[in-house]
Specification:
The chain is mostly helical. It has 6 helices and 2 strands, in the order ααααββαα. Helices cover 61% and strands 6% of the residues. It has a two-stranded antiparallel ribbon with strand order 1-2. The longest helix has 25 residues. The two termini are 20 Å apart.
Length: 163
């Protein structure tokens, strides 16, 4: 069975390839309104990091929501700093995670007051799946821009890990 940490490592390796492609893009193309699920490619990328941060480091810890705004990020370097911060927190989480923690309740409180409750195990599947979904959205926008999308399959990741 695929381990949670491996799944997170895979999507972060894919993210590294996306970031490499974005490094070649002018800032105004990165931040321009593209009418995606969020305003810009930058905002979609920030959202992918925020999903991980909110679910694993705020909601799962009973701390509400991260106080992060898309306008806090002016450049790819700003986004990279946030990625490193969240990656470190996630690494620490996986170091201390025990099998019994997977049953822990994680609550999401919506702005209208509704509350949904999940297990940490569900969240550990949800986060990578949502992130990968948004990577596909970024890829589709790359294609519209005639930019090669840096697709990295899990199978290639597995082979690379064996080396």
């Amino acid at each position: 069975m695929l381990g949670y940490e491996e799944l997170f490592d895979y999507f972060k390796r894919e993210r590294d390839k996306i970031v490499s492609a974005l490094e070649k893009m002018p800032l105004d193309e990165f931040t321009r309104n593209r009418e995606l699920s969020f305003y810009s490619i930058k905002d979609v990328l920030v959202h992918t990091v925020l999903v991980e941060d909110n679910w694993l480091h705020y909601r799962a810890a009973g701390r509400g929501e991260a106080q992060v705004k898309f306008d806090d990020f002016k450049s790819l370097d700003d986004v990279r700093r946030y990625m490193r911060e969240v990656d470190q927190k996630t690494h620490e989480l996986f170091k201390r995670l025990k099998p019994e923690d997977l049953r822990k309740e994680v609550r999401r409180v919506y702005p209208d007051g509704r509350v949904s409750v999940y297990t940490l195990e569900q969240v550990l599947y949800h986060v990578p799946i949502e992130v990968i979904h948004h990577y596909g959205e970024i890829f589709a926008e790359f294609w519209r821009m005639n930019v090669d999308a840096p697709y990295y399959s899990y199978l290639n990741y597995s082979k690379d890990k064996e080396k």
